[in-house]
Amino acid sequence: MDVPTKSATEAVSRIILTINGQPREFALDPRTSLLDALREHLHLTGTKKGCDHGQCGACTVLIGGRRVNSCLTLAVMHDHDDVVTIEGLSASGDLHPLQAAFIERDAFQCGYCTPGQICSAVGMLSEVKAGWPSHVTADVSSGQITLSDAEIRERMSGNICRCAAYPNIVAAIRDVAGAVSE
Amino acid sequence: MKPFTYERITDPLAAAAAVSRAGAKFISGGTNLLDLMKLEIEQPTHLVDISQLPLKQIEDLPDGSIRIGAQAANSEVAADPRVRARYPVLSEALLSGASGQLRNKASVGGNLMQRTRCSYFYDTAAACNKRTPQMGCAALRGINRIHAILGASDACIATHPSDMAVAMSALEAQIELLEPNQSTRRLAIDDFYSDPGSAPDIETVLRPGEMITAVILPPPPPGRQRYRKVRDRASYEFALVSVAVIVATDGGTITTARVSFGAVAHKPWRSIDAETALMGRLATLNTYQAAADAAMRNATGRGHNDFKVELAKRTLCRTLADAAQMSTGRQ
Predict the structure, then answer these.
(1) What is the ipTM of this complex?
(2) What is the interface size between A and B, counted as CB pairs within 8 Å?
(3) Cβ contacts (< 8 Å) between B84 and chain A: which residues?
(4) What whole-number distance in Å separates Cα of residue B11 and Cα of residue B142?
């Protein structure tokens, strides 16, 4: 039988997370969400706290390349995982194509949901590339996905924008995806 | 959130011992449990992280079944080519639930175990027999628009919120459990959930220390599969009513029928009555209406949710018509 990797009696959990390519050590109360670990411990405040209940998507980050709500997962559950935040998308100094497209298309008003929208769109586009269907895909058994505006809206429904910049968010994503508008 | 200790296990055989501590709970994706812990509706004092167990595989079995590991993410199951080709109703159901982010995190086992979204269960100032036994039920005389019309009791009218489980019910899924004595047992999904009765805090027949290790889907029956979800928003919303159907026709006569409803009861609601009313009959609207009436014969509204009885009937008729048309179109 494998030995548990974490002692059950440890009050403070010591973990390592790779954040935007850099290994970072943490000593955390096990209750700490990944979101709070990023914002309060690393001061990476690009990732936003909206509802803190997985309903708004403002806290979206990429773990192992997959988009997730960082508010609804514990940092201790991601020991040794690779996390990419909005700060990591332009680490080279150049804006990520989605960041540039959001500016070009004016895809925000207050901007609070924007980091989550962009991280979510990065994850979403790789899901499309992998051929994942969505709720609006006419035939889920087909491997071909055409990224129509309806597909973009459905796939981005986990990211709420209270300023309702949705038309421009869809346009920005469409620009980067190279998809045809319906 | 109340304090807790945390441990990660990497061997399924360690699960029962780890969770035997007082106040211990399994955690997997955490998308439901952590939400409830923040609200202090759930207050585990020890979390056993089972998300890294080697139970993520989706594999074909020799008898033509498919075995879906309990730790597979909802999104991976929905996107699996075998599931999409042979069990499209399951893909459709999964894709109609939650958001892309949540589906990436939520596990199959966790989806089965998720708690109701009854607003009184979530409101710690309100009476709820499910949250606090013998406290009473505020939903009975409250705003019960989203509540159950079948299988409920005077102690609880909460619904099970899963879409995935509704499709699994129509597919006659078996749930594989690892027992504390390290043997396994299988349960039909329809036998997995407990009726609310007078103890709605007990939601499943899981025994102490048992863990879900897989869901097994038998070879699919012939016919077209369809999941339809009716809700207040077009996306990212729980169902008011949903239905999973499988229909095959031969020369206009129905030769296979499976019907399960979601959001109408404390569990996915398989309707054998509807299936009986469909089998051997002509695939016409009259037949669908007879099946819908049979399915809802014992349905009871509680006021605000009275509309669900008619909505469930219409949703079934529309979905059967879609599936039968597709079935005919293929032949």
Answers:
(1) 0.96
(2) 140
(3) 133, 140-141
(4) 45
SS (H, E, C) chain B: CCCCEEEECCCHHHHHHHHCCCCEEEECCCCCHHHHHHCCCCCCCEEEECCCCCCCCEEECCCCCEEEECCCEHHHHHHCHHHHHHCHHHHHHHHCCCCHHHHHHCEHHHHHHCCCCCHHHHCCCCCCCCCCCCCCCCCCCCCCCCCCCCCCECCECCCCCCCHHHHHHHCCCEEEEECCCCCEEEEEHHHCECCCCCCCCCCECCCCCCEEEEEEECCCCCCEEEEEEECCCCCCCCCCEEEEEEEEEECCEEEEEEEEEECCCCCCEECHHHHHHHCCCECCHHHHHHHHHHHCCCCCCCCCCCHHHHHHHHHHHHHHHHHHHHHHHHC
Distance CA B95, CA B74 (A): 8
End-to-end Cα distance, chain B: 57
Q: Which three-class secondary structure state does DSSP give residue A25?
A: strand
What CA–CA distance (Å, rounded) separates B120 from B71?
A: 30
Measured between CA atoms, how close is B31 to chain A, in angstroms? 5
Give B181-233 pLDDT, tens digit per residue. 999 999 999 999 999 999 999 999 999 999 999 999 999 999 999 999 999 99
| pLDDT for position B329 | 52
Reported as a single tens digit per residue, the pLDDT across B220-254 is 999 999 999 999 999 999 999 999 999 999 999 99
What pTM value is reported for the model?
A: 0.96
Helix/strand/coil for A14: strand
- Is residue A17 within 8 A of residue A24, CB to CB? The reply is yes
Closest CA to B112 of B142, B77, B86, B145: B77
* Residue in chain B nearest A76 by alpha carbon: B6
CA angle B161, B326, B276 (to 5 degrees): 65
